[in-house]
Amino acid sequence: MAVLAATLALSAVTTAGTSVSSVAPVAPVPQADPAAPPAASHCTATAAQKLGWGAPTRESGFDGTTVPPDWHPYGPEPGHDKKGTRTPEAVTVADGAMTISADADGTTGAVSWHPGQRYGRWEACVRSEEGEGGLNALLLLWPVAEDFPVGGEIDWMEIMDDSRQETSFFLHYGRNNDQDHGSVRHDSTQWSAYALEWTPTAITAYVNGEKWYSTTDTSQFPPRPMNMTMQLDYFGDAGGPTAMHMDWARQWALPASEAARLSLPLGTAATGQPRDFPDRKPRELSATEQQAQDALVARGG
Predict the structure, then answer these.
(1) 275: which residues sit within 8 A by CB, 6+ positions away?
(2) How far apart are CA 241 and CA 236, in angstroms?
(3) What is the greatest pairwise CA distance in the chain?
(4) How far apart are CA 128 and CA 187, in angstroms?
(5) Could you report the per-residue pLDDT of 172-186, keeping only the tens digit for each?
(6) pTM of structure
(7) 254-297, pLDDT tens digit by residue?
(8) Which of 111, 74, 67, 122 is nearest to 249 (CA)?
(9) E strands along 1-45, which residues?
(10) Taking the C-alpha atoms of 200, 204, 206 and 210 in order, what is their torsion angle to the nearest 10 degrees?
(11) Residue 82 contacts by C-beta under 8 Å, 6 or more apart in sequence?
């Protein structure tokens, strides 16, 4: 809604000894859209702005030179399905973006964003370089309780295509790791805003503000809070090097959202192998750790 400036321009004109004042209102000043992407964003078409999601609960812009403390690199440890290696050194921040790099030997990275929640909205501006033979670029929600497969998994951007021209969606659910799947043709070598909305009645995915996957089968929905993760996964015999980049990430809580009770202390490592590295699993934070995390979230980080 436009807001009229309170200041009025006054001009006085004197005619035959009579003083006459005319009043000219200043032009309305438009109010900034809280759902708009950051001013210097590589992604200008977003689901948040198109659908009017409003200001995010928290966001990361990667303006520094180190990984923010609420983003937790995996490892060092074996990679996806025990193939290759995930190392924190593969996750870097420079030139306003966070990057995960991978080589042909399977040395790559992953990084998770805490705290998580059940139900909400997420959107990230990302770009994926072409890969070869099994280096998949992903944005996903992973169960905070580390109880996959019963805890579910929402892969809302999984790019298996070497040329990065097709994106898949996988909704994992149940003890048998059943899956629902969708796909869209899209050039992900260009900066793209991938978004997910998870409500009690629907899960919907968007790219650059356009819906491309949705389900209302609530029996397949994750049963507990999830946290966002960015991964460049090695599936073996891959060519390289390649990389994926994130310009910014945003998260919205909904009235129905349930905050995660478990989390990771700021600045600590995460894991994709919780049985082998139980000390890196999310847990109840101490009072001091919780206070530090709450302060960061309150600042929008």
Answers:
(1) none
(2) 13
(3) 94
(4) 9
(5) 999 999 999 999 999
(6) 0.88
(7) 999 999 999 999 999 999 999 999 999 999 999 999 999 999 99
(8) 122
(9) 8-15, 18-25
(10) -110
(11) 273
